Amino acid sequence: MQTHFTIDCVIYSFNEGKLQVLLTERNEYPYKDWWALPGFFVDKNEEMEGAVKRILYEHTGLKDIFMEQLGAFAGVKRHPQGRILTVAFSTIVKYDDVKSKIKPMTSYMRQASWFPVTALPELAFDHHQIIQQSLQKLKNNIHYSTAVYEFLPEKFTLTQLQQVYEAILGKELDKRNFRKKIANDGFLKELQEVQKGVSYRAARLYKFDKRKFQKHVGVE
Amino acid sequence: MQTHFTIDCVIYSFNEGKLQVLLTERNEYPYKDWWALPGFFVDKNEEMEGAVKRILYEHTGLKDIFMEQLGAFAGVKRHPQGRILTVAFSTIVKYDDVKSKIKPMTSYMRQASWFPVTALPELAFDHHQIIQQSLQKLKNNIHYSTAVYEFLPEKFTLTQLQQVYEAILGKELDKRNFRKKIANDGFLKELQEVQKGVSYRAARLYKFDKRKFQKHVGVE
DNA sequence: TCAAAAGTGTTAAACATACACCCATGG
DNA sequence: CCATGGGTGTATGTTTAACACTTTTGA
Fold first, then answer.
1. CA A198 → C1' D24, Å?
2. Which CATH class is domain A4-140?
3. Least enclosed by CB within 10 Å: which of B80, B113, B166, B218?
4. What is the separation, in whole angstroms, between the first and last Cα of chain B?
């Protein structure tokens, strides 16, 4: 037995203090005019991971981004035309890197736009479920993955980092406890450099140090 | 574009102090005579979850077992005849419930047999990779899931429970610390009953109390 | 000098780890 | 009476959580 095979991509970014997801407005039936996750059919002989990269590229112009499989969604009724198995992936991009590049490159969708995860529109297919499952995983793994750093520029302040944590977890954190934890983890590199262009005390900048992280986690 | 669609099932049990996986010996090409995970094609109009149950049933005679999706494996080269997308699931059964029922119910495989995860034979396709990924997940979630109790009979001793933990984690645990942790979690029900038929001091029996567990985890 | 955000320590409670001996039972 | 596994407590270090004020800076 054969099935159609697509991938759907949950693309996150962080902007205006909020965790955002990139959605596209469909220009084709079914679900014409609905918002949906960016997703397409996988080509014959195309590796799944390659398909994710291709779609990410077609939507954002970006390459070489961290991405992770969430799982397969294969409900017989998830698509009105019969089973279309989709494998969902999630990806994180830096909002500023991407904002000028976001535009539909196929006529299948009318526009692409960011939505805060706390204020999603009604979505096509089972895409709401996919996002919720993905979000849950992001929360669960926040302390064991490098995901938070994917949201931030290379150099960032501790307050920015804390805001990303808060947006993902959906709750406020204590500043002192947060800084203690981060300091204790010890995989940030403190720079001899501070923020510029702010009208208040400038915060120190930090970098994520991948080497220290890998030592900490116990690389295999 | 369409692809063949199978599911593969990682079926665990606990026996002789070891974590075991059920494998089948293939009687068909490709990989004739190799050991592989139990797996089959999903039927048209069959829900994926239904297919897992069906295959589990065909191999073990069991129904209504906890099962969880691991993810999709879709490499173009994972099957010699071209892409066959498989979605892997994992499942836990009680060895004693199952041991008399295990037998091939299709001529596609010659026999089914348990192997300790520490001594697996060479496996067909990418099944070794699937098992390793599944094992990792089992370890990661051991404290947050009810999986360990799926390995045990309704009434069990604390030593049996500890052995399951040890088999999954692949390391020894301190008896006192383990008991403190379990007591502290507080979702076991102590029975007024002890082991029978042992030639040493009989151990107290316990039950897993699902209600208490759900309160503890914070059910949603 | 004011507004805004940066930066900083202490205490209490919960939890994890290391470690060794006596007890109850059946044979 | 002995072999076997059952059962128990203490001390130490680590992690988490709660909580508020002073400092720096640019406008």
1. 12
2. alpha beta
3. B218
4. 39
Judged by CB atoms closer than 8 Å, whether chains meet at B72 and A48 is answered as: yes
**Minimal Cβ distance to B45: which of A70, A76, A87:** A76
* Cα separation, A218 vs A23, whole angstroms: 36
pLDDT at A30 over 80: yes
pLDDT digits (tens, 9 = 90+) for A142-180: 998 999 999 999 999 999 999 999 999 999 999 999 999
- Upstream peptide bond of A104 is cis (omega within 30 degrees of 0): no
B125-182 pLDDT tens trace: 999 999 999 999 999 999 989 999 999 999 999 999 999 999 999 999 999 999 999 9
Instruction: Enumerate the domain spans of chain A.
Output: 4-140, 147-217
Q: How far is CA A59 from CA A8, A24, A62, A110, B195, in A?
A: 12, 9, 8, 12, 63
Distance, in Å, from the CA atom of A34 to the CA atom of B110, rounded to the nearest integer, reads 50
d(CA A197, CA A154): 17
Q: Give ∠ CA B171-B175-B177 in degrees, rounded to 5.
A: 95
Give the helix ranges, DSSP H, for B70-157: 95-98, 127-140, 147-150
B50 touches chain A (CB under 8 A): no
Please give the CATH topology (third level) of the domain spanning A147-217: Arc Repressor Mutant, subunit A (1.10.10)
Residues of A whose CB is below 8 A from B71:
69-72
Q: Which CATH class is domain B148-217?
A: mainly alpha
Q: Which residue is nearest to nucleotide D25 (CA to C1')?
A: A201
Q: How many angstroms is C1' of D11 away from CA of B176?
A: 14
Query: Is there a shared CATH topology between the B4-140 domain and the B148-217 domain?
Result: no
Question: Above 80 in pLDDT, residue B220?
Answer: no
Q: What are the helix and strand counts (H, E) for chain A?
A: 7, 9
pLDDT digits (tens, 9 = 90+) for B200-219: 999 999 999 998 888 777 65
